[in-house]
Write a structure and sequence with these properties.
By secondary structure, the protein is mostly helical. It has 2 domains: about 100 residues; about 60 residues, no CATH class. The protein is about 70% helix and about 5% strand. The chain contains 1 helix and 2 strands. Strands 1-2 form a two-stranded antiparallel sheet.
Length: about 170
């Protein structure tokens, strides 16, 4: 009884091997055929292009010759419009840039007036809104009220950039 099941399994194994071999051969032949078809299609495309180029190139050259004056006129008009736009926008942009520089100075003044006195050894002036800290003729001008810095440990003209507890109300 076991003999018939062994024969059946061997038969099925042989059928699967034959099927696998047949499918491999079929795939190989299909690959060869597709390569041949692609080669033929490439040759046809090259031949079509060789035959069409003498016909199409003069048409393209003529089209370019006809379009060239229009292209030059449009280019000139675009350049003129761009120049007019630049002339209109440049003053606005210049004003914005100048305003932006002033805005940055105003916003950075508290930090500048806090850090610079530390760097220039003016501890009394740290955070004072009057601090200037620029050198003129080789001399440091600390502020308008005290050109060389306050002489006392506490400056009578000190006004902080930073809000204090009494400023929060």
């Amino acid at each position: 009884m076991d003999d018939w099941s062994d024969r059946m399994w061997r038969s099925l194994d042989a059928i699967s091997q034959d099927t696998e071999t047949w499918l491999q051969r079929m795939g190989y032949h299909l690959a060869e055929a597709s390569h041949a078809l692609l080669d033929a299609a490439d040759e046809w495309a090259d031949e079509i292009q060789r035959n069409l180029d003498p016909e199409v190139n003069p048409l393209v050259d003529e089209l370019n010759r006809v379009i060239e004056p229009w292209e030059s006129a449009v280019d000139a008009q675009v350049e003129e419009a761009a120049e007019q736009i630049n002339q209109a926008i440049d003053p606005v942009i210049d004003a914005l840039v100048m305003g932006l520089g002033q805005w940055v100075e105003i916003l950075s003044a508290p930090v500048h007036n806090t850090v610079e006195p530390m760097v220039q050894n003016q501890p009394t002036c740290v955070g004072c809104r009057h601090y200037y800290g620029q050198a003129h003729g080789g001399n440091l001008l600390v502020c308008a009220m005290h050109p060389y810095g306050p002489e006392a440990e506490k400056c009578p003209d000190y006004e902080s950039f930073w809000p204090g507890p009494s400023d929060s109300a």
